[in-house]
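Re-run with default settings, no changes from the original entry. Doing this only to confirm the output is reproducible before filing.
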Amino acid sequence: MSSLYYIAFKSLITKEVNRFTRIWLQTLVPPAITMSLYFVIFGNLIGERIGQMSGVSYMEFIVPGLIMMSVITNSYSNVASSFFSSKFQRNVEELMVAPVPTWIIIAGYVGGGVIRGLLVGTIVTCLSLFFVSLQIFDLAVLMASVLSTSILFSLGGLINAVLAKSFDDISIIPNFVLTPLTYLGGVFYSLTMLPDFWQGVSQANPIVYMINTFRYGFLGITDIPLLHSFAMIFGFVVVLYSIAHWMISRGIGLRS
């Protein structure tokens, strides 16, 4: 990366981090409170009645999924809201005419989404320690899964922002697509509990692979082979990056 490209990348990252840290009461605190409620309600109250799942306590089982849920939603929403705001205020037009390659623009916005997603994930992880004693089974798998997932949903948020024509449009995907897929992605249950038909249907949900790889990093248990999961995740990253690069380089949804 040349020095000029590095300056452009650093400027975008700095802008993104300053944007969400300046309003930390809106961006960092609400996810922490929401996940704490999940820990209390599903972990303590309901978990005591359920007992164990996949050989571990129910609280231990759901914590990785809840952490990943917070990473997914915050990575996505950060890039979607930030890029659409730049588009709405026509700031993005300055990037389009500047001698900055498309991949730098994508890297800058996605980098901001990844930082926010990982920061919120870290906060939620620290909060979970008040409820359960976490052990790391495989740090490399843990880091690879959370980083690749954060990149994937940051790219998804970027594509959503490019296509959106109003602020209402950037809430449609999180509310009607991400939320159902997350709840049906194995956060609160093991796929082995489902009949064979529904296990097959669940494997069409990409979030299943992300939550299972992340859970393996903590607990060493997974419903889907790791190589299969990582192949799916990286495949989605490549596809979404290609779409985002094509759309931005051609100015789709950006040029009036």
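The mean pLDDT is 90. Residues 12 and 26 are 21 Å apart (CA to CA).
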